[in-house]
Design brief:
Mean pLDDT of chain A: 88
Number of strands of chain A: 4
Distance between the termini of chain A: 44 Å
Mean pLDDT of chain B: 87
Number of strands of chain B: 14
Largest sheet of chain B: 7 strands, mixed
CATH superfamily of the largest domain in chain B: Response regulator
Number of helices of chain B: 13
Oligomer: heterodimer
Strand content of chain A: under 5%
Low-confidence stretches of chain A: 285-289
Number of helices of chain A: 11
Distance between the termini of chain B: 83 Å
Strand content of chain B: 15-25%
Strand order of the largest sheet of chain A: 1-4
Radius of gyration of chain B: 22 Å
Shape of chain B: globular
Order of helices and strands of chain A: HHHHEEEHHHHEHHH
Helix content of chain A: over 70%
């Protein structure tokens, strides 16, 4: 029992990270119909920026995170600007363009920070809580809290603000949205910026849990993407649930199947997707790809 | 209109594609590669260094490069080998066997006479058949027993194999310390698999069965399930067979789950990357089997560490020292054989008796030149020779 609960908690803390990554994937997809393959690498850039500000300029962690989120948002703007001419013209080229950007970001990170990477000490040096023999790291609780807050903020933005409603409209029908005077390009830019900011949040938070290096985007990106698909690609609540499910599944697979955990995780994922291709919260509104 | 739009479309994408292509190329191709063979002439002696310069194993690659380059620079400053300068070109294998075989073909076609690296046994094993056919000697930093199993007369190791590391470690844990309650965590990569088999064999030779034998994937990030299971077995020591970063993450998570038993392992646990990832307080008391415990073991290592620090501004460690030894052996063989190539160079390497940083090298037919490691313990964040 203790093993089960502990495994669940371990899975939840990484699952919260996957959920944030999945939200970024889903937000860009629902708005533009585009899978941003550079997203994992944007997470890596966010992790580097946050840890660099935290370690070398000795900014408090929260402030370093804010600066990193802002700077990574700029990366999102750059990607969207470069891809904008392709909007609604050549979708395949746009996909390949995001892959290219991913490679460029990884290479830039190697040039700027070196290939070796660095470890980030935990910003909350409090010993873990001990609840009936189950250990809960305080930092993990903080990560879960921040992820929940970010989700709530994003949902409020999409449902309660005019700009958010406009983005929803673009997601449903971009031609009709244009007809009523919504600037589709700006809507896409905002989606990319928020997506990049979520990536930076995920990257900055995951730094002290793992190890920051130029290739870290790969596995975080794939599991985040899997989370987004599992939850229902394009759905924000789906991304949260999907990310957490992937994290927990991964954790249990590691306990039961050891070296074959990755295989088992993705077989289970494939079976779920075959049974329910739209994912848990599959939406009919997003139909642009 | 549409034509105009189309052209405008292509520009940013092309720029992105070109930039990524240029960067990818810059990462793969060696600086100043050309096709002049350097057998018996007066140009520089061309030696290839193949290591991961990008990807997850790039820390290893960076250390190896620094160690090998230090040795080459020393020789070049002293006038080269028999009056000829040494040209050390770097190739990136990305820690990937497929990339490695491509690099091997490139080395053959561009006329390199010897190769240093790689640090990843799986890559070296993939490259070995091509290098054997082309008769290009290779001094690798890998340590998997699989390297010996390849049986290539052109493949040499610049350190002991996992078998040596783990036999020494098991002997120390079981016989010197009297520990019988041992748990194991290894990963399913080439290094981890080698460590798993070698350590398990060394334990069973002493009639000890591990209380837990857990395998993780090389890319795993959360070890809650594995570690909680091990915590319930309450082992006296936990053996780790995984690369630097993963070992560090395991130790960090183990401590936060309340596991207090010390960890024991091979080379990765003596590195600064391991210490940084795990956190200094968490690695106290770790037991490490290594042929190069610290920069203070001998006069030669102090000299090496000072030169390393002067050149790169950081402290030397095992992998740099291994690569330095490997390069010294190769250059000595070149000097002794009057810059031979192919079979003659391989024979010359086998004949070298080198007093290196890791100990006294003397190669046998298996390509292993050294078969001893020492046991160290981490005290106050520093690896020191074990006293008991």
């Amino acid at each position: 029992m203790q093993v089960t609960i502990q495994t669940f908690i371990g899975g939840m803390s990484l699952g919260a990270i996957y959920a944030l990554v999945a939200m970024g994937f889903s937000l860009v997809y629902r708005t533009m119909g585009l899978v941003n393959f550079a997203h994992g690498n944007v997470v890596m850039v966010g992790a580097y920026l946050a840890s660099t500000f935290f370690l070398s300029t000795r900014l408090p962690f929260a402030l370093a995170m804010v600066v990193a989120i802002g700077a990574t948002g700029v990366v999102g703007v750059v990607i969207e600007r470069a891809l904008r001419p392709l909007e609604n013209k050549d979708f395949d080229l746009m996909l390949i363009g995001t892959i290219g950007f991913g490679i460029v970001l990884e290479a830039l990170a190697i040039i700027i920070w070196g290939a070796t990477g660095h470890a980030v000490p935990s910003p909350v040096p409090v010993p873990p809580l001990d609840i009936l023999g189950v250990r809960v790291r305080t930092y993990d609780l903080m990560v879960l809290g921040i992820a929940a807050a970010a989700t709530a903020a994003l949902m409020l933005f999409l449902q309660r603000t005019k700009r958010g409603a406009a983005m929803q409209a673009v997601a449903m029908d971009h031609e009709a949205a244009t007809a009523v005077g919504i600037h589709v390009g700006r809507s896409n830019a905002i989606a990319f910026v928020i997506g990049a900011a979520l990536a930076a949040l995920a990257g900055g938070l995951v730094g002290p849990m793992l190890y920051v290096n130029p290739s870290m985007g790969g596995s975080l990106g794939i599991k985040g993407f899997a989370g987004a698909v599992l939850g229902g690609f394009g759905s924000i609540p789906g991304a949260i649930i999907g990310g957490l499910v992937i994290g927990v599944l991964d954790s249990f697979a590691a306990g039961h199947f050891q070296g074959y955990s990755e295989l088992v995780l993705f077989v289970v994922f494939t079976v779920i997707i075959m049974i329910r291709p739209t994912g848990i919260f599959g939406e009919k509104t997003v139909n642009r790809a | 209109m549409s034509l105009f739009a189309r052209r405008r479309v292509a520009v940013p994408l092309l720029t992105a594609a070109l930039a990524s292509a240029a960067l990818a190329l810059a990462a793969c191709s060696p600086p100043g590669s050309n096709n002049t063979p350097s057998g018996n002439e007066n140009g520089p002696i061309k030696i290839a260094l193949v290591d991961a310069q990008s990807g997850q194993l790039s820390s290893l690659g960076a250390w190896e490069l620094k160690g090998a380059r230090l040795a080459v620079n020393e020789w070049n400053k002293a006038g080269g080998v028999n009056g000829r300068q040494i040209q050390l070109d770097v190739f990136d294998d990305q820690g990937d066997p497929t990339t490695g075989t491509n690099v091997a073909r490139k080395i053959v076609s561009e006329g390199y006479i010897a190769m240093l690296g790689t640090a990843e046994s799986a890559v070296t094993i993939a490259m070995a058949p091509i290098l054997r056919d082309a008769k290009i000697p290779n001094i690798t930093s890998g340590q998997s027993p699989g390297l010996v199993a390849v049986g290539s007369p052109f493949l040499f190791l610049n350190g002991p194999t996992s078998t040596t590391y783990d036999a020494t470690l098991a002997k120390y844990l079981v016989e010197t310390k009297g520990l019988k309650n041992i748990a194991m965590i290894t990963n399913n990569g080439a290094y981890g698999k080698g460590e798993h088999d070698a350590f398990l064999k060394a334990l069973s030779a002493r009639n000890v069965t591990p209380v837990a034998d857990q395998v993780v994937t090389a890319d795993q990030k959360d070890f809650s399930a594995v570690l909680t299971g091990i915590r319930q077995k309450n082992p006296e020591v936990i053996f780790l067979g995984a690369e630097e970063v993963e070992s560090g993450l395991i130790v960090k998570q183990a401590r936060s789950l309340g596991i207090t038993a010390p960890f024991a392992g091979g080379a990765p646990m003596g590195t600064p990357v391991f210490a940084d990832t795990a956190g200094l307080a968490n690695i106290e008391g770790s037991i490490v089997s290594s042929p190069y415990l610290s920069n203070d073991v001998s006069e030669a290592s102090r000299k090496f560490a000072a030169a390393y620090k002067a050149a790169y501004g950081e402290d030397a460690e095992l992998h740099g020292a291994k690569a330095y030894d490997g390069a010294q052996i190769l250059l000595t063989a070149l000097k002794n054989s009057n810059i031979a190539t192919g079979q003659a160079l391989a024979d010359a390497i086998r004949a070298v008796k080198h007093e290196g940083l890791l100990g006294n090298f003397s190669y046998d037919n298996t390509g292993v030149g050294i078969s001893a490691t020492a046991i160290g313990e981490i005290e106050n964040g520093k690896l020191v020779a074990a006293t008991s």
